[in-house]
Amino acid sequence: MRGTALAAAAMAGVLTLAGCAKDSGGSSTNNAGSGNNQAGNCVTAPKPPAAPPSSSANQTGEKVDGSKLKVGLAYDVGGRGDASFNDAAAAGVDKAKSELGVTQVSESTASANEDEAAKQQRLEQLAAQGFNPIVAVGFAYAKAVGAVAPKHPDTKFAIIDDDSVKAPNVTPLVFAEEQGSFLAGVAAVYKSKTCHVGFVGGVNTPLIQKFEAGFLQGAKAASTKVKIDDEYLTPAGDISGFQDPPKGNAKAAAEIANGADVIYHAAGASGKGVFEAAKAKQVSAIGVDSDQYNQKTVADSKDVIITSMLKRVDVAVFDYVKAVAKGDLSSVPKRFDLKVDGVGYSTSGGKVDDIKDVLDGYKAQIVAGQITVSDKPQK
Hints:
- The chain is globular and about 60 Å long.
- The chain has a six-stranded mixed sheet with strand order 7-6-8-9-10-11, sandwiched between helices.
- The longest helix has 17 residues, at 206-222.
- It folds into two domains: 70-176 and 315-331, Rossmann fold (3-Layer(aba) Sandwich), CATH 3.40.50; 177-312 and 341-367, Rossmann fold.
- It has nine helices and eleven strands.
- By secondary structure, it is of the alpha/beta class.
- The chain has helices at 85-100, 116-128, 142-148, 177-191, 206-222, 245-257, 271-281, 313-326, 356-367; strands at 70-75, 104-109, 134-136, 157-160, 170-173, 196-203, 227-234, 262-266, 284-289, 305-311, 343-345.
- It starts with 69 loop residues before the first strand and ends in a 12-residue tail after the last helix.
- The relative contact order is 0.16.
- Keywords: Cell membrane, Lipoprotein, Membrane, Signal.
- Residues 75-355 form the ABC transporter substrate-binding protein PnrA-like domain.
- InterPro entries: BMP_lipoprotein, Peripla_BP_I, PnrA-like.
């Protein structure tokens, strides 16, 4: 997973600045059509057709009472406050409190490299204490949910990022991370001044490879000459890659030193280090999971965050809790993708406002099936 790069094509230099690596302005000579002058020298794909008008049906007025629920939330490493994945789940439960009247919530967090017994014990304790439903935040809980759920058939469980547990009382909450990451790749190319972007993954697992795959495909779709650095913090099995900001900082700093000026991370709490490295060199960064521009724990670096790939774990958790309160789980999507706004991109800070039409155009093509995004990295 090291140093994936698409060799730069011939420099276009007729009365314009010489190539994207040293671009400081000037009008685009292709039909990318964005207001971003620098992007014009890196973007090689035509601007996608405009997205059709949104026809979102507003489902207001449905009153659901969740006051009798006792919600258990078992976080992955990092827990509430990681400014990313776990915080998104927490936001879903917070919304359930405010909109559904949920009052009883128990939250607990996995420690780094804890054994399987500890995860099972966490879920067993929640079930024994009468919490129902119980949401396991992350694929690392798959074995534990598979072991505990059958012992508590009257307790409803949900697990995020895993659909391997086949039990009648278990609901998988899975996402099309590759689709949202495709848009992150497009944004990176349009905002790059050097035509060189980077990806930092936390742990080299099939899940994080979905983020990587979408980012690579999106960047390549927008440009045939972009260079991409592609790195992981730890190999599969070493979960510390999601909780090591210094390592994230070092890896991002190395990519920046190599020429990358937009870095996308899918590294959990380690992303804080990625943002710090980007700020130190005044390059751009793309967040993940939550709208990280608005996350207090990374507020010192917010000015370099141009967008975040939104993985709407908050929506999934809220929709699941609401469905349990209604007694009807059939409304929970089988997969939270672009079509149901289960993934997407943020616009906080206004840094991608000038390319929103481009991103929405690509989104429309993915939703319509005109672009199929792979969940396996294509080098």
